[in-house]
Specification:
The protein has 226 residues and is mainly beta. Helix content is 7%, strand content 48%. The protein has one helix at residues 2-17; strands at 29-31, 36-38, 42-43, 48-55, 63-70, 76-81, 85-91, 94-103, 110-112, 116-120, 133-136, 141-143, 150-156, 164-172, 180-185, 191-195, 200-210, 215-217, 221-225.
Amino acid sequence: MRYCIIICLIILLGCSRNKGPKAPGTAILEFPLKNSECSTGEVINETTSRVEFKWEKASDTDTYELKVINLNTNIKQTISTALLSAKLSLEKGVPYSWSVATKNSQVNQKTESEAWLFYNAGAQTTYAPFPAAILEPSSGSTTSKDINNEVLLDWSGADVDNDISEYTVYFSLTNPPETVMATLEEGKLTETKVSVTSNTVYFWRVVTLDDEGNTSESGIYEFKVF
């Protein structure tokens, strides 16, 4: 009986160690820095420079997929590599977001990193704020209203010059939304509540203004209330 117990314990310990292939770890971004101006790009011509992206090694990872999005046009560039860096040619004076997905050959999934924002340096000395990042409700989602028949609109903002002065929230049943629902000073709130009706689709956007009079738009998002 004692030997049977020992054998069972050995089998259980062996099984506990063999948990199968692991999902890839998360890449930690290094450069370009978050909410920064990237001025180290290799000049290609008057309008373009080549930027090198760097990140830390992630566990259980064979391949890294760099994704860079032009925030003015939403055009996306991707590149796959086994290295911890990659270069892409980018338009000068334009805001971008970048992130890195990790993959391995053992599992059919990938792990996404944070998304960082930066401006590729151009001739300008002041920059418009980054477009507000919509948090909730996400575009295309279905959400519920609270007891007061309201939904919370939530976003985040960032600016290289750190001089955001206000956010203006547009919200309506029509696309594009043109009704101003709130104008909020930076540093106080990046959220506001709006009255809604069930089984209705709404559209909203956020315009960010800085002290220099520069503006940026989040793009238009929609959600349905059930």
